[in-house]
Amino acid sequence: MSGVEMARVSKRFGDVLVIDDVSLEVQLGEFIVFLGPSGCGKSTLLRMIAGLETVDDGTIYIGEQRVDTMPPGERDVAMVFQHYALYPHMTIRENLAFGLTNRRVPADEIAKRIEAAASSLEIEEFLERRPGQLSGGQRQRAAIARAIVKQPSLFLFDEPLSNLDAALRARTRIELAQLHQQLGTTMVFVTHDQVEAMTLADRIVVLNNHRIEQIGTPMEIYRRPATKFVAGFVGTPKINVIEFDAVENGAMTTAALPDGTSLETAIPWNDSFAKVGTTLGLRPEAIRVVSPDEANALGRAKVVERLGERTLVYAELADGTMLTTEDRGDSEVRPSDQIGLFVDCSNAVIFTQDGRAHHCAQVSN
Amino acid sequence: MAKQIANADRRSAWARWSGILFVAPYLCLFVLMLLVPLVMGMRLSLARGDLFGIREFVGLENYVRLFQDPVFLRTVWNTLYFVLLTVPSLTIAGLLLALALNRETRWAAIMRGIFFASFVLSVTVVTLIWRLLLIPNGGLAAVVANSIGAEPISFLGDQDWAMPSIAITTIWWGIGLPMVLFLAALQQVPRDIYEAAALDNASRMRMLFSITLPAIRRTIALVLVIEIILQFQLFGQPQLMTGGGPNNSTRPIVLFIYETGWSQWQLGYASAAAQVLFALIALVAMVQYRISSKKERG
Q1: Do A72 and B214 touch (CB under 8 A)?
Q2: Residue B217 in domain
Q3: Which of A27, A31, A58, B288 could form a disulfide with A9 if both were Cys (CB 3.0 to 4.6 A apart)?
Q4: Do B268 and B177 fall within a single domain?
Q5: Domain final residue, candidates A167, A201, A226
Q6: pLDDT at B149 over 80
Q7: pLDDT tens column, A242-284
Q8: Residue A137 in domain
Q9: Residue A234 forms part of a structural domain
Q10: Does A85 touch chain B (CB under 8 A)?
Q11: Domain count along chain A
Q12: What's the confidence (pLDDT) of residue A364?
């Protein structure tokens, strides 16, 4: 049995196609994150699972039950909204009880569930207050508690952390991860924040332009992005994308950078690399500042950002190509220093003109 | 230092005065057109007066006379009866219409326009339309009655039917205002609350009573106060439809004031009646406000 199964789902708003033939299977108990830029359709997809948007084409199953024809209240899902969506004129206790009384859950059972949820989210002291008397963080905890007491078979989160300040966001993120461990319920979480996606997800679904770009574990998405878009969207600082000439080197590919540097990669040669518009993707941590005798490339530091455990050096190659590079430990690099760079090509990616990514042959271990 | 303080003082004094300047135009109009006439009216109500001014002060004599005047007492009753007939109906019907038409279809937009349209008509037009509908020989109501073989009722000529007929006319005329106010309030309710309620398995009735009505309770109170004040001032409809008859059954307070003042030139007596109306409206509105604001706190 799967948690959620979507088959060839499409959705239009008037003439605009907002979900374009999406198929996806979520495992039972899995934490799935929909990640993508605004307007990519990720929230719409979530709302279609909830039943808040109709499905124009395709089917949605939750467990064994086909739900795309059912009203939201019967789908056995609970949703946490971006703007909390607490009922403003009810106390938090009444908010939590509302869905349960509608389902005719016995009163003592309701009281028991509310106590349990309130104590695990530490909102017991706010139970008799109205949402208007609580801070944003407290309101979001109340909204999460409202979802928990329903004991649904599926949790849906629509950018629940985006209205919280940075510290509170990090804390709530950890609490959500713990909640998932505790309950083991399937969760679908929508965000445009890649940190949330990387830290929370069992698997990430990257959406762009109303379609799925890639489905994979966080490290798969990071290490082996399926497209140039995914590579650029995930990872801070952003991946370096460099113009280069691809040279066939036996079965593999050698990258000749515009400044004359030649880098051997383990990416199998493909004839489409010879076309215009082919680019090389290198994560900043794959380009390290080293002493010139260890270097396989030379550059000049332009901007140095010290982040503590590592330092980002924005370096310029001889031909003017800009690279984001990393220096470990206490960096002594200063702007306009000549620096040696060691480029590690083991995780390099080649993007062909159509946006697809080509990786090194998968090492089986 | 001292200079700085003086500067700050000057600045705040200027801020105060410039603020007053901004409200001055309205304040002048308010004093001239509302406050002064109000005080003059109160003064006049304590006197015997005519078109040429106050003849003599008579103390509370006008008021004593008023409360012994069966015609005046009848008009007070008539007005209360009319308010009771119209205000709850206008509020409930306006709310139901707003609930029905609060959607983004073209059809709903057209219907909103139609229901609001009657509100912009003048009282002359409205009463003319309804007189044509209600007259016993040839009116629409009479045609309907004849077609089902019933005796046509003389709605405006019958003591029991005249006031309800005026009330129905007024509801038809005035339904646009509460509807628009309710529509505005309904559109303020955040959509995601309804979505949360839908996921919480709430039925439509439960949504109405647990989500919608509590969310627009301020507007319900506002509509009640506005309509109470408005309907207490009933005047044009009975003046044009029944002339206050039959047998004073549709004569409201304002018509009494008008006729006493401008037909019989008893300006002091009319002023006293106006003060009673003022007190009545203030009292009812205050009670209404108290009740609704207490509910809000509780």
Answers
A1: no
A2: yes
A3: A58
A4: yes
A5: A226
A6: no
A7: 999 999 988 899 999 988 889 888 899 988 898 888 999 999 9
A8: yes
A9: no
A10: yes
A11: 2
A12: 45
Could you tell me if A170 and A247 lie in one domain? Answer: no
Cβ separation A102–B211 shorter than 8 A: no
Domain count, chain B: 2
What are the chain B neighbours of A81 within 8 Å (beta carbons)? 192, 195-196
Residue A77 has its nearest CB partner, among B199, B206, B211, at: B199
Q: Do A81 and B195 touch (CB under 8 A)?
A: yes
On whether any CB of chain B is under 8 Å from the CB of A87, the answer is yes
CATH number of the domain at B164, please.
1.10.3720.10
Q: Which of A82, A87, A99 sits opposite B201 (nearest CB)?
A: A99
Interface test with A, best of B105, B201, B205, B296 (most A CBs within 10 A): B201
Percent of chain A with pLDDT over 90: 73
Q: Do B193 and A85 touch (CB under 8 A)?
A: yes
**A349's tokens:** 């990616």
Task: Tell me the residue range of the domain where A310 lies.
Answer: 240-359
- Same domain for B95 and B207? yes
Final residue before a domain boundary, out of A179, A201, A226: A226
Query: Would residue A233 count as lying in a domain?
Result: no
> What's the pTM?
0.81
The whole domain housing B26 covers 2-45
Q: What pLDDT is attached to residue B298?
A: 41
* Interface predicted TM-score of the whole assembly (ipTM), two decimals: 0.85
Tens of pLDDT, residues B232-285: 988 888 888 888 878 888 889 999 999 888 888 888 889 899 999 999 888 888
